[in-house]
Specification:
With about 325 residues, the chain is an all-alpha fold. It has one domain (about 5-300). Helix content is about 75%, strand content about 0%. It has 14 helices and no strands. It has helices at about 5-30, 35-55, 65-90, 95-100, 105-115, 120-140, 150-170, 180-200, 205, 215-240, 245-250, 255-265, 270-285, 290-300. It is globular, with a radius of gyration of 19 Å.
Length: about 325
């Protein structure tokens, strides 16, 4: 699949994940967070397996794949969702959003440390611009990072755990289809979260006894669309373009979360927020390598082969 098609898929995932912020807040308000998350992740896992059946991608894990998937699920599902649920309950939305915006930078640093990725000034410029855009959006009308709480620490641990998992996913993608990997990670991770919920939330099961159809519709939408399809697509993209490039698109999450809040909750979108989105968009073009690739192809059409490396020469290219 061509890179630009992968980029469009990633933007679609960011739309789903951005809107999922509103959905998650609704769910956490009505259910105990860790218990609800365990059931949501299990629902997502079963959805992934059902989607893989007609694709003929469903199979048992083999050999070392069991160990890799279990470790990745510990970081990507149990660690990330556990710390995120605790963090968002103990910090402001602006602080949490800004810290989550560190994901691409943390993933890039992990890729440099463990995958030998060589970063260009395009990539680094994109990361800086993208993070600046995130800061513009999530700190608008708030005190920003002036008061770091235990919730801030939890959110940082959540995004750090996810960044580590992305490197493991990239390593596994060489032999295991990332979509199948997603199903197994969600499946095993849901059991880990459920075990935690039984200890931390003894009344968690009672909180799941809701009869509101609308609330369960939000639950299913979050589990199937945002978590199952979203993570399948995102992990597939990691296997195609690498962890560092795919993670740049996470910078779009705050913007689509704002759009969701405006459309669903009636909150206004301000000029400052639009300015932040422009920075994010430019950051994606630079950081994802899309602009660099366009310039390379433009120079090749003119017969000039100097100055730009091919995508295959990047340390985090597809199939590495």
């Amino acid at each position: 699949m061509k890179k630009y098609a992968i980029y469009l898929m990633l933007v679609g995932v960011m739309v789903a994940w951005g809107l999922n912020v509103t959905a998650t807040k609704v769910l956490v308000t009505n259910f105990m967070p860790v218990t609800m998350t365990a059931f949501r992740i299990m629902t997502a896992a079963l959805s992934v397996f059902l989607l893989l059946v007609p694709m003929r991608q469903l199979r048992l894990l083999r050999g070392k794949e069991w160990g890799y998937v279990l470790i990745a699920s510990l970081f990507n599902v149990v660690g990330h969702h556990y710390f995120l649920s605790l963090g968002l309950a103990n910090t402001s939305a602006s602080n949490g959003g800004l810290i989550l915006g560190l994901g691409p930078l943390l993933t890039t640093l992990m890729a440099i440390l463990f995958l030998g990725t060589r970063m260009t000034w395009f990539n680094m410029t994109g990361i800086v611009l993208g993070l600046s855009g995130v800061a513009f959006i999530v700190t608008h009308g708030s005190s920003g990072m002036s008061g770091v709480s235990i919730g801030d620490v939890y959110v940082f641990l959540a995004i750090l755990a996810q960044a580590i998992s992305f490197i493991l996913i990239k390593k596994m993608a060489a032999t295991l289809d990332p979509r199948l990997m997603t199903g197994y990670m969600l499946f095993f991770g849901s059991f880990g979260l459920y075990a935690l919920s039984r200890v931390l939330e003894p009344e968690g099961m009672a909180s799941m006894a809701q009869t509101d159809i609308g609330l369960w519709a939000v639950f299913l939408g979050s589990a199937v669309i945002a978590t199952a399809v979203g993570h399948m697509t995102y992990n597939y993209a990691i296997g195609q373009v690498g962890a560092a490039e795919a993670s740049i698109f996470i910078n779009l999450n705050p913007f689509f979360a704002l759009i969701g809040s405006s459309l669903l909750l009636g909150e206004p979108v301000t000029l400052v927020q639009v300015s932040g989105f422009v920075l994010i968009l430019i950051g994606v073009l630079f950081g994802s390598g899309a602009l660099e690739e366009w310039l390379r192809q433009h120079r090749l059409r003119k017969g000039d082969h100097r100055g730009y490396r091919t995508p295959e020469s990047k340390g985090c290219s597809s199939g590495s």
